[in-house]
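Researcher: Please predict.
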Amino acid sequence: MHNRILRFLKEHGEKLDAQIARALNMSMSEVRNQMSQLSHSHDIVCCKVTRFVEGNMIEGLSCRISCDEPSATRGRKPGGSVIACPLNLD
């Protein structure tokens, strides 16, 4: 049964508990119970989130595969080194 949740997260990435329950046709209590077991075994990482969709507040558990790192953001990163100007203007 745990394999279904792991397989779903591998295919679809980070999802809320309600989205997992709906997609796998499982009850919320069953999904949260299995997510708790998977989190305890360090197979997934879960955190409480609050999202606003069309002005409605949605609270739930967001989870992802534990070894799945979020993709790096584009653009300059803070704390980067500054390269000195190679031109001598004297």
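Model: Residues 16 and 52 are 13 Å apart (CA to CA).
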